[in-house]
Structure of Glycosyltransferase family 92 protein:
Amino acid sequence: MTIKQQGTTFTFHSSSKDSINTSKVVTQSGVHFVVMQQEVPTKRTTPKSVRWSVSFLFMYATIYCFHVHLRLRLIQTKDLQSRENNIITDHFRSVIPGSSDVFVFSAFGIHSDSDDFSQSDNVTVSISSVVDMDSPVRDYKCILRRKESPTAIWTKATLQLYPESHGRRFTAAAFSCMVKDVIDLDTVSLVADNKENPAVVLPIMFPSEAKRTFTVCVPPLNSRYSKAYQLVEMVEVGRLLGADHYFFYNYSTEWNVDVVLNHYKSRGLATIIQWSLPLALQINGTDGTSEEARLHYFGQLVMLNDCLNRNRGASKYVIFQDLDELLIPKNHQSWNDMLNSLPANMAAYMFRSSFFHLDWPNTGLDSNVINEIAKPYKAYAFIKQYREERIFGRSVRSKYIVDPLQVQVVGVHNVWKFRKGGKSYHVPPEVALVHHYREMKQNQQIRSQRDNSTLRYIGALYQIQRTWRSLLHIPLGPMN
Ligand SMILES: *[C@@H]1O[C@H](CO)[C@@H](O)[C@H](O)[C@H]1NC(C)=O
Ligand SMILES: *[C@@H]1O[C@H](CO)[C@@H](O)[C@H](O)[C@H]1NC(C)=O
Ligand SMILES: *[C@@H]1O[C@H](CO)[C@@H](O)[C@H](O)[C@H]1NC(C)=O
Ligand SMILES: *[C@@H]1O[C@H](CO)[C@@H](O)[C@H](O)[C@H]1NC(C)=O
């Protein structure tokens, strides 16, 4: 039986008296449901009962149809809305087609420094970019467009090279364009010299309403990243500390990590941004950590600032931390409690770091939860309870929490540029420490000391277990 409705084909499959099973095939042209009538639940069929059951089935089918159709439309609109709220461009694109002079990724509108950020109609549009230091082209302009307005605004683009390029040919950068007294800015294009036709049009993202308290930005997942156990531990411990959301940048992952990422994404805990670097930047292999890579560490500086900008307004605080790190308060239960004990309204809170060696012996703690959860699920924060006595100095391997409204440019271990009036505060290691878990093949004697401060978060282990149980047979990793 086939029922046509608004050009979409619906068919129904009834396998038992009480339930109707549908199998769904989504095609480009629409949604098709297949209905197969297996057994009409009548033994002796008079023409009347056949008519009745057919019309009953038809009615049921129509109602079901309508219901499913509605639900699908709801899902589609929701999807569209979330895409609109969270426009994600997923490619670096070349500004001069066919060349590698400048690649752009995303664009952000930032209201000029004033007492009230949102009241100013003077806007700086900042375009996340990667530029070729060998390129002779240096003059760029922005073409800005407003919503529902045919006239374009041309302005000079100022190039700001980010630090930490480590002498590579390509460097992370931002082009900024200032416009005065303009509302409803919508898109921006960067063009070289006086080229009229832009190759790339980027939507301009503006600070949104505050949605979250703590958002964590994680550097690009790379080299077929497959330590799913590390990801799960980081997210679950982070949630106990107060993390509301994680931003992951996907350069290269293994399938087990994809499953974990999608698990958190579907629960609204993670945003995954494709981080597909152009081939020109990958030459000499995909290993951005090697000396020969053309761009330092998979464009980490572009990524960090992209994440900062995406969260300006959306999150009260943004935390920058690596996959093998945890920011652990020493006297408080949560990041929020800890920040409340520190000087208020700082633009950045800087945290010092210390190594926990993974090759040092496991904790002597012989509890069920350690033996039955931490060990099988490789939750090292609860197994490794010794750290180096040495705590790195300020800005050496430090990580930080920022108020994104007060910060302009961030780096790997420190903030490079504050907005007007922004100040940083160095948090004493007695208040909180970045735990950096790593494998170290060193022979020399290193002074160690016990640090069991993660035990306050041992409740995360139950959540780690729950997560892995719901993921069933996914390998913990590493896989390569
Ligand atoms: C915008 O810029 C103009 C010109 O520089 C300046 O006079 C004005 O005060 C600025 N407005 C705000 C709200 O900052
Ligand atoms: C990460 O990127 C790869 C392609 O590089 C893709 O196959 C994979 O599905 C992505 N993972 C997620 C979780 O989006
Ligand atoms: C990387 O590229 C440079 C020049 O572009 C070349 O000299 C070098 O041998 C290459 N290295 C590898 C590992 O391919
Ligand atoms: C944690 O370490 C301290 C000493 O640093 C010790 O007094 C305390 O008993 C330890 N706690 C646990 C649960 O092992």
Q: What stands out?
A: Residues 237 and 405 are 26 Å apart (CA to CA). Residues 1-46, 68-88 have pLDDT under 50 and may be disordered.
